[in-house]
Write a structure and sequence with these properties.
- The protein folds into 2 domains: 7-278, monomeric porin ompg (Porin, Beta Barrel), CATH 2.40.160; 300-497, 60s Ribosomal Protein L30, Chain: A, CATH 3.30.1330.60.
- Helix content is 22%, strand content 36%.
- The chain contains 10 helices and 19 strands.
- The chain has helices spanning 7-16, 18-22, 300-309, 315-320, 324-339, 356-361, 381-393, 406-421, 439-459, 484-490; strands spanning 48-55, 65-75, 79-90, 93-109, 112-127, 149-162, 165-177, 180-191, 193-195, 198-209, 212-224, 228-235, 240-248, 251-258, 271-278, 395-396, 427-431, 467-471, 492-497.
- The chain has a 14-stranded antiparallel beta barrel with strand order 1-2-3-4-5-6-7-8-10-11-12-13-14-15.
- The longest helix has 21 residues, at 439-459.
- The protein is elongated and about 110 Å long.
- The relative contact order is 0.09.
Length: 499
């Protein structure tokens, strides 16, 4: 007979690991919270799948072995669906589980998100007594369907994020057996410290059985970008866990080793767990495709659509990518969302047909006077004095940025009105920087500042042939770069009348 096990050993496994049949504690769950919390369905913002295998107390042949496979995906933007299949064997006891999950995620603010999830499913438990040597043929534990049960369960969970802080709680398995209600609860909290490309994340979790505290875990994870991580964990049963994981694009692999310091240390052995995943790790964001023409939205629905398109990006990233058209759309839409109304559409000013490619590539200045030269003599003073004074003011930028703030846009609105009233006037926009940073960096940011101003004037109706732009880095400081106060004044864009 195979698996010659005395019936007295059955009690050991059925008693000690009874809760494991319902709620196996995995060591790799911090990287895959979907294992326990339905609120994480669709949280990867892409289709995600995984398989996980855990061999507990490897030195014991009939110790628990658990295999899990799951998939989840976002739907309709803020919802998620998932399915999880689990199979586990502990001694002679086998459990199979099928779980379906639904989650709803909402953005409370720019730095807060909240998700709520629900799940339900079916568990089937069986006792496989084939090949068992028994001491008592009348023992009820090996007769008929004593251990065979079909259990319907349900559960729920929540997840809250505030910047780098995360808190989640779940009850993934709630079921009734006879008059008893069985509930397992997990609470998890973590904070992520970012140091450039590295991050350090301490975390704690607690497990509760019904109303009783069952265990706690403490974790410390060191990660590099989203490509590699190491973690050390301590469990309240005095076990230590070392985990390592890495990602290759959307594929991920992780392994955990747990020491055996619990009550079965004298007969046990270590616990091993390995996980393969697809889509659970963040990957490098791809640069958004440029928008060929400026589209001025006419409905608030378009505002929300574009907002979703730029999620997890910053305005500066679009500017640095040379995508000035998309950048200025974002600025306009941000203003409209703040006011609660869509931006006005000015169809008479030909805003719908401005080529972003032509604007970005046309950085060459021809027939321009030298920096600092102002050809005011070519313009009648009686009609343009106020406008020339307006141009002399210029506008400022924050350090390392080419993004227009509200004051800058209001100022350029007035400049646009003046230039459209004087179509015979041609101007040159100079982008400037302070002396901080390399020459290459300063030249790049100064060109971006000049081109951002140029583009903004163009989408406000100023003809393209009326304005030119050039970046000159820190070649023409307004004041000496001897203090931060002066450097702020030098991060600017200025205007020169060339005709």
């Amino acid at each position: 007979m195979k698996n010659k096990i005395l019936i007295s050993i059955i009690g050991l496994f059925l008693g000690y690991f009874a809760s494991a049949q319902i709620y196996t504690v995995h060591n790799l769950y911090p990287e895959n919270m979907f294992l326990y919390n339905p609120a994480f369905a669709g949280s990867a913002n892409r289709f995600a799948g995984f398989v996980d295998y855990k061999h507990h107390l490897a030195a014991i042949s009939e110790a628990p072995r658990t295999g899990i496979a799951g998939i989840h995906t976002p739907i309709f933007g803020n919802m998620g669906l998932g399915v999880l299949i689990k199979t586990e064997r502990v001694g002679l006891l086998e459990t199979n589980m099928l779980r379906a999950d639904y989650a709803f995620r909402t953005k409370l603010s720019d730095s807060q998100t909240f998700a709520l999830g629900f799940n339900g499913g079916l568990m089937q438990r069986n006792l496989n007594s084939e090949g068992v040597v028994v001491l008592d043929d009348t023992d009820p534990t090996i007769l008929g369907d004593y251990f065979k049960k079909n259990i319907v369960f349900f559960g729920g969970g929540l997840d809250y994020n505030l910047k780098n802080f995360n808190f989640s709680a779940s009850m993934p398995v709630i079921y009734r057996s006879g008059v008893n209600l069985f509930i397992r609860t997990q609470v998890y909290s973590a904070y992520n410290f970012q140091f450039g490309q590295w991050n350090l994340k301490p975390a704690v979790s607690a497990l509760l059985a019904e109303k009783n505290f069952e265990a706690y875990h403490a974790h410390l994870t060191l990660g590099f970008e989203q490509k590699f991580w190491l973690r050390a964990s301590y469990k309240s049963n005095k076990s230590l866990v070392g985990s390592v994981g890495m990602a290759l694009g959307k594929m991920g692999i992780a392994y955990a080793y747990e020491t055996n310091n619990n009550a079965l240390a004298y007969i046990g052995g270590a616990t091993h767990e390995i996980s393969l995943s697809y889509g659970l790790f963040d990957v490098k964001k791809t640069k958004p495709e440029p928008i060929d023409t400026v589209l001025v939205p006419e409905t608030q629905e378009y505002v929300h659509k574009l907002k979703r398109m730029i999620e997890n990006e910053t305005y500066d990233q679009f500017v640095k990518a040379g995508n000035f058209a998309f950048y200025n759309e974002i600025v306009s839409l941000t203003d409209s969302m703040f006011r609660g109304t869509p931006p006005l559409v000015d169809k008479d000013k030909n805003k719908h047909n401005i080529s972003n490619e032509n604007l970005i590539n046309n950085n060459t200045v021809t027939n321009a006077t030298a920096p600092g030269t102002n050809s005011e003599s070519n313009v009648p003073k009686s009609n343009t004095k106020t406008g020339i004074e307006l141009l002399d003011k210029g506008l400022s930028f924050t350090e390392g940025s080419a993004m227009l703030n509200a004051d800058g846009r209001a100022y350029l609105d007035n400049v646009a009105i003046f230039l459209k009233e004087h179509p015979e006037m041609k101007i040159l926009i100079y982008g400037h920087s302070c002396d901080l940073g390399s020459k290459q960096t300063n030249l790049r940011i100064s060109k971006q500042r000049a081109e951002t101003v140029r583009y903004y004037l163009t989408i406000n109706g100023v003809p393209q042939n009326q304005i030119q732009s050039e970046g000159i880095a820190d070649m023409q400081p307004l004041v000496p770069n001897t203090s931060e106060k002066n450097r702020i004044k030098n991060r600017r864009a200025s205007f020169v009348i060339i005709k």
